Amino acid sequence: MTKQLYVLHSPRTGGNFIKESVSPVLDANSLSYYTRDQYTPHTVNLSEQVFLAGHWGTYPITVNPDIDVVSVVRNPVEVRASIFVYLYDRIFSKRAEYVKFESITDKFKYYVFDDPNFEIHKNMQARFICNPADSMIFDAELFTQNKYKLQAVKDLATSKAFSWFIGNENTSLENAMSNLSSFYSVHKYDNLNLTCQDISAWFNENYNVNITFDMSNVVNEGSSELPSGPSSTAEIIDALSSDEIARIESFDNIDKAIYDQVV
Predict the structure, then answer these.
(1) CATH code for the domain of 32
(2) How far apart are CA 111 and CA 147, in angstroms?
């Protein structure tokens, strides 16, 4: 079987920066890869790809248990703020309960503390580390036959949190730490440069290919344009009180415990 590297991409943890840095080099060296992340049915032989990156949880590991896995863990408060900002124009700006709040921070507080539609965002990173995506999303025929049975499709149609077709049954700190200990590379988002170094070393060792990452061009930070001006993840976090931060961390207690244990 092809020697493979999989970037297990939890949302808002730098995965797009990684795959956009790696893919052009693989094109130039005629190495196969699959990084399309459209949440739509795909028909692709994952076992033939040198490089995989996507919001698929542990599913590629079920296809190839020997695959080398890279994962990045981010401060859960930053993840919550980042995904809110990313989704603001797409979802929240269209909902009356959010429009009534003037500041982006107040809108964020409603999302993280009060909106029941987004319970699934709790411990999101642990969910991805512990659970596989539903395999039928990689089979167009099966997806067509069963798409109305998938909760992710129902959620998307009603503007609720999209689950990326990943369940939550196996989510626990024990399972997350066990999986992370078996991965090829795990670092904090704060140390994304270390992740990039590990990926470069892997490609050099296994395919004699040099991958260069421009750390000044990390594309993960999102922002939304509001009437009051541009707002970013950092601005939201800066406006939170220490008690509010602690409350978010209590909601995302598994993600926080993982983050605290990763270098």
Answers:
(1) 3.40.50
(2) 27
